[in-house]
From TrEMBL:
InterPro entries xrefs: Dimeric_a/b-barrel (IPR011008), Tscrpt_reg_AsnC-like (IPR019888), Tscrpt_reg_AsnC/Lrp_C (IPR019887), WH-like_DNA-bd_sf (IPR036388), WH_DNA-bd_sf (IPR036390)
Protein name: Lrp/AsnC family transcriptional regulator
Organism taxonomic ancestry: Bacteria, Bacillati, Bacillota, Clostridia, Eubacteriales
Gene3D superfamilies the UniProt entry points to: 3.30.70.920, Winged helix-like DNA-binding domain superfamily/Winged helix DNA-binding domain
Source species: Ruminococcus hominis
Domain Transcription regulator AsnC/Lrp ligand binding: 71-144
Listed PANTHER family: LEUCINE-RESPONSIVE REGULATORY PROTEIN (PTHR30154), TRANSCRIPTIONAL REGULATOR AZLB (PTHR30154:SF34)
Length: 166
């Protein structure tokens, strides 16, 4: 791996942990000039290596009604296009957050959000299941998030250490 790739990988690892890090702070952390870091970030954005920046929100603490579901989708691949066209059709729905091609009994994993279990169920039965290449779905509702994108979602407990008194 060349020096440029090592630099990029280190920048990416840092941005993945904290996308809000100040580039000057990142430059100090990496022992480099801020301009060099800023140029690499801009170049990686232009090349679509960095595709966007996101804020992770614990919606359970906001009082907003929100249901997240993982939908496994089995499809018949289309000639000369495999799974790409059906994946594109699915990811264009605004309710859909992500679509992944996966291995195993199902072909695609779709994550989506709705206000209620019923809203998500209706999306699956009225929009997703009727798509012609779709031959089966399985819906899994997320009931509680313990860890998401590397971040523990529950409050930290006190120390596990025993209190020692004289």
């Amino acid at each position: 791996m060349d020096t440029k790739q090592k630099l990029r990988n280190e920048i990416l690892r840092n941005l993945e942990k904290n996308s809000r890090i100040d580039l000057g702070e990142l430059a100090i952390l990496m022992g480099m000039e801020e301009a060099e870091i800023a140029n690499e970030v801009a170049e990686m954005e232009k090349e679509k290596i960095i595709c966007g920046y996101h804020t992770m929100i614990n919606w359970d603490k906001t009082g907003v009604e929100k249901v997240t579901a993982l939908i496994e989708v089995r499809v018949t691949p289309q000639r000369n296009q495999g799974f790409d066209r059906i994946a594109e059709r699915i990811y264009n729905y605004p309710e859909v957050n992500a679509v992944y091609l996966i291995s195993g009994a199902y072909d695609l994993l779709v994550t989506l959000e709705g206000k209620t279990l019923q809203e998500v169920s209706l999306f699956v039965s009225e929009k997703l299941s009727p798509i012609e290449p779709v031959i089966g779905t399985a819906t899994h509702f997320i009931l509680k998030k313990y860890k998401d994108h590397g971040t523990i979602m529950l409050p930290k407990k006190g120390s596990d250490r025993m209190v020692v008194t004289p």
